[in-house]
Amino acid sequence: MSHAIPLRISQLIKPRTRLEEIFLDILVRIFALIPIGALSFIMFKIIQKGAGVITWEFLTQPPLDGMTHGGIFPCIFGTFAITLLMILMALPLGVAAAIYLVEFAGPGLFFRITRAAVNNLAGVPSIVFGLFGVGFFILFVGRNLDKVLQTGLLFGQPCMLWAAATLAVLVLPVIIVSTEEALNAVPQSQRAASLALGATKWQTIWRVVLPQARGGILTGAILSISRGAGETAPILFTGCAYFLPRLPVTKLFGVIPMINPFDQFMELSYHIFIMATQSLDAVKTLPIQYGTTLVLIAMTFLLNLAAISFRVHFRKKMGTVSV
Amino acid sequence: MDHKLFKKDVHWGEWLIQKALLLAGISSILIIALIFIFLFREAVRFFHTGTPMDLIGKWVYDDWEERNVFTMMWQSISEVPKYSLIPLICGSFLVAFPATLISAVLGIGCAVYLSEIAPYKVRETLKPALELLAGIPSVVIGFVMLAFIATFVQDLFHTKFRLNAFVGSLGVSLAVLPIMITISEDAMRAVPKELRDASYALGASKWQTIFGTVLPAAVSGISAAVILGFGRALGETMIVLMATGNAALVTGNIFSSVRTMTANIAAELGSVAQGSEHYYALFLVGAVLFTFTFVLNLFSEIVLSKMRQKLRM
Fold this sequence. Notes:
The complex is a heterodimer.
Chain A: H1 4-12, H2 18-50, H3 56-60, E1 63-64, E2 69-70, H4 73-104, H5 109-122, H6 126-149, H7 160-185, H8 188-196, H9 201-230, E3 249-252, E4 256-259, H10 268-278, H11 286-318
Antiparallel strand pairs in A: 1-2, 3-4
Chain B: H1 2-25, H2 27-44, E1 58-62, E2 67-71, E3 74-75, E4 82-83, H3 86-117, H4 120-134, H5 138-157, H6 165-189, H7 193-201, H8 206-217, H9 219-235, H10 238-243, H11 261-268, H12 277-312
Antiparallel strand pairs in B: 1-2, 3-4
Helix pairs in contact in B: 2-12, 3-6, 3-9, 4-6, 5-6, 6-9, 7-8, 9-12, 11-12
């Protein structure tokens, strides 16, 4: 009797031999090794070819001799500058959006539409963001600002400001999603306690919820910096330059040095692309390509590693252990 | 009295903050809408000079055959500019289909391992590694394809072109793999443990449970992952720009050089006069691409939210 049911079920589902089970076990293990293998292969190859190129001069000198020698300092500077501008724009907006979604919007239609919009935004091709940057930021916002402010051609041209704005739009979903997750992890009882003590809703958010969500927000910020630093397509036409003889800096009131958001800039990922595909002598510049790729990949790798370990740390603190 | 005044102030401030937050909350809806508007605004201007038929092909006089021939080409810089979308769409699909296929097979297998087989420790090591893979900039994958893999593939298959659709789709599948694994693993882990237990209790083995219970229960989430992955593969830019050779051909040969919609925009927008027919044609390509990915994203979003609702029940 006790054998009857198993027999019938295993007749329904195609019975598999022990050998097939072992084969499948091994197969999925190999599948699981492939992403790891690919990651290791990329890291190994880039380090192997690029490590010899990295010298102090390479990191601190501008390109020389028609970009065949010298370093990549302007690219490193440009990458830092643009990701800084980007995060300054994206972080407040993204965090505010997430606060609204979690703390104010109920689980109604608005929430579902916003949810769908955020997910859809995350799936928009990066080159479409590039087109959007040109069509909206430069030609619409920029040109109209120039008309209204009578600034000639200051806003209506590709520059770091619009490149950073385009990247900010691109990383917005990353920040919203990770902030939402961080806010949701704060126990509801703490909000209730704060409200019961007479605090207003905003005081509760500002003093009770946000301090605890800091870790998760930080993780999202780091992830989006890494994402922004690696993106190329959105900045192709919104402000990136093949070569600039100067750094995009200016002096505020003639004294305080600051990033010039109205200048074009050189950038690491664009530098890799342009050197690998469009330099006059791609073989001669190979060491530079490897070196630049190593610098970029080291940067994004470390940022991601930091974000992951931050998240593990904060989740442990919040009591949820899974990665 | 002071107390009352204070309270009123706070309420006014709270109201303002809430409205500001609402504004931020709708930002993503607003941005999606703006992308729609500004892509299509430029795209429809193509039809001031061009016709919808131009997007398929043009009758062009052929000197060799000495008669008019219907050509489906993207040839923006020529005496008679041709803006046929057929070779670009063909190229996009010739890269995205194999890439989705490869990453779906690998990704679902990987997800099965992570969700059903891997011990806790292995899982906790593999997941961050996947995130690190996802964090590799696409330009780096493109560079690796260009510098190392392309020659290897050419030696292996003796292809005519060193850079071709297959090399591109290998790179793209690597870029799509992490998201494919993550979503399908989530779907499998969302399958209630009771179902597995019931299957085991009926005497099914581990793999019988996986094929008979877990995969059927997670099928909607897995298909959402595949659809989403396909959308990502269509939209991938830098890898295909660097690794597919960029020749706009109408072909079904995976070892042929192709030019995708994304690569076409990236390669040409930099050198085009704003307001020209060519410029609007590129926005039109962008609009078509955006429509494709938007529909795919929306579709997978609907499938996923249906699944979430079902599981909540």
